[in-house]
Amino acid sequence: MRLADADGLDAVSMRAVSHHAGLSTDAVYRWVRNRDDLLAAMAEQVLGTERAGDGAGRSPRERLERLARAEWSLYRRHPWLLAVLAKTRPPTGPAVLALVDGAVDVLTGVGYDPPDAFAGYLAMSGFVQGMALLHVAERAERDAGGAAWGSWSTRTFARLERTGRTAERPWLAAAGAVPADPDRELERWFEFGLARLLDGVLP
Questions:
Q1: Count of CB atoms within 10 A of residue 43's CB?
Q2: Which among 3, 103, 108, 174 counts the fewest CB atoms within 10 Å?
């Protein structure tokens, strides 16, 4: 997990883990069968130690907000976790399943049948993961020495204005006026989308 947090999933290999743990590679293979098992174990560790809580005594909306914000926070603290979970064949350990249980329990409690409750969870988690992808991409750009978001957005908006592409697009003009702080903007976009998603999901 420390390797992935510092340098991304590409830094996590069986050889690298064995080296940093002071073990032989064969010794690591006695604990996990392969790299996929290792990544699944890492996800279990993160999810098992950073749970959102059961939200007892809260309204269904508050419980779903709590779960969505907890997942959002996980991806921001551990960007590599997104690549492990956002796939059609994710790991299915107890902590991963518990992540789904929380939302499904809320949605069945408000009247959805289990298949639709699971679909509701996927809609919510898909939104969270999509927004987290922007955070991961921004971090990767910065780590690779790319232009800061502020300077990039200023130059890009000026070019779009010069070429007349903002004239019939009020949303572009509005976007150009927004303070270019990546973290603050991503947080605002996340909260905006989450509120409207829950407006549609909850009766």
A1: 23
A2: 174
- Domain layout of the chain by residue ranges: 32-201
pLDDT tens for 179-190 read 557 788 889 999
Report the chain's terminal Cα–Cα distance, integer Å.
39
Q: DSSP letters along 33-45, please?
A: SSHHHHHHHHHHH
From CA 13, how far away is CA 34, in angstroms rounded? 9
Helical (H) or strand (E) element with 123? helix 114-143
Judge whether 18 and 25 are in contact, CB under 8 Å: yes
Upper half-sphere CA count for residue 85 (Cβ side, 13 Å): 29
Task: Return the CATH number of the domain spanning residue range 32-201.
Answer: 1.10.357.10
- What is the pTM (predicted TM-score) of this model? 0.84
Report the alpha-carbon distance of residue 203 to residue 61 in Å, rounded: 10
pLDDT (tens digit, 9 = 90+) per residue, 161-184? Answer: 888 888 888 888 777 665 557 788
pLDDT at 68 over 70: yes
Distance (Å, whole) CA 127 – CA 26: 40
Q: Which of helix, strand or coil describes residue 52?
A: coil
DSSP 11: G
